[in-house]
Amino acid sequence: MSSRVVQRHRPLTGHQEAIWYGASLHNFFKQLMTSDPIPEYLLAQRLRNRCIDVLELLADGNETVRQFGSAGYFNWFFDWFPDEDAYDPPSAMSQDEVEVATAVLALMREACDATSLLVTEDELIATGWPSRIQQFAQNALEVFMTRGRGVED
Question: Does some domain include residue 69?
Fold first, then answer.
């Protein structure tokens, strides 16, 4: 079994912090504290939007590695996609979205398996993985943005 756990070493800032921990996590815990459960369609839409967030970061390629570190590059992706098991996409995704997201997932798993656990940003960039993934992520993002982001409230 491959281990994809990588320790984060740079904190999130600005917009990324809101994406990853602020708004979505706050709303998630707020909903858990209420007696009304989150409707399945709303949860599915939120998860689809998080996929868009991840694809936006991957679509920036080497810049994302430099901004968030090699560990953050992989960890943030695998916070929203399974690192080993089968992908069970949110029901809000179209078939085309599932196909491109699954292709990016396969590439990220391959990159993670091929990359040393302790790798610097420059070493990760030198492998060429972020650039290869960037192309797939940009394509996937185009597919997702055909429908755009969904409402989260």
Answer: yes
